[in-house]
């Protein structure tokens, strides 16, 4: 996963951990399976801090940006197979397996 810190010289960012396809923030306070969020279009997930200091998904629920996760659009490959009767071929589109390496996590410095 690509990680971008804003500003690059910042020192106080939310703690996060990646285990397989699951990302966890603040020692499990907020966690989800990123692969389940993948769609046929790019997805941007805002992680914010609400008025109580808790982490929430979505800018509408939060007061301060903490992080943003970008999941690229699902990709497909064309697979051509021969028909069972041996006459002609058939093409189908198969989804490329999800990879966390393709995602980008942007972290914003938090107030001390």
Features:
about 110 residues; mainly beta; 5-stranded mixed beta sheet; 3-stranded antiparallel beta sheet; 10 strands
User: Which shape, going by the Cα principal axes?
Assistant: elongated
| Sheet with the most strands, sense and barrel status | 5 strands, mixed
Mean pLDDT: 94
User: Helix segment count?
Assistant: 0
Structural class: mainly beta
Element order, helices and strands? EEEEEEEEEE
Helix content: under 10%
Strand order of the largest sheet: 1-10-7-5-6
Structure description:
- This protein is mostly beta strands and 112 residues long.
- The protein has no helices and ten strands.
- The strands form three sheets. Strands 1-10-7-5-6 form a five-stranded mixed beta sheet, with no helix packed on it.
Please summarize what this structure is.
This protein has 112 residues and is mostly beta strands. It has strands at 2-6, 16-19, 22-25, 30-33, 43-49, 55-57, 64-71, 76-82, 89-95, 104-108. It has no helices and ten strands.
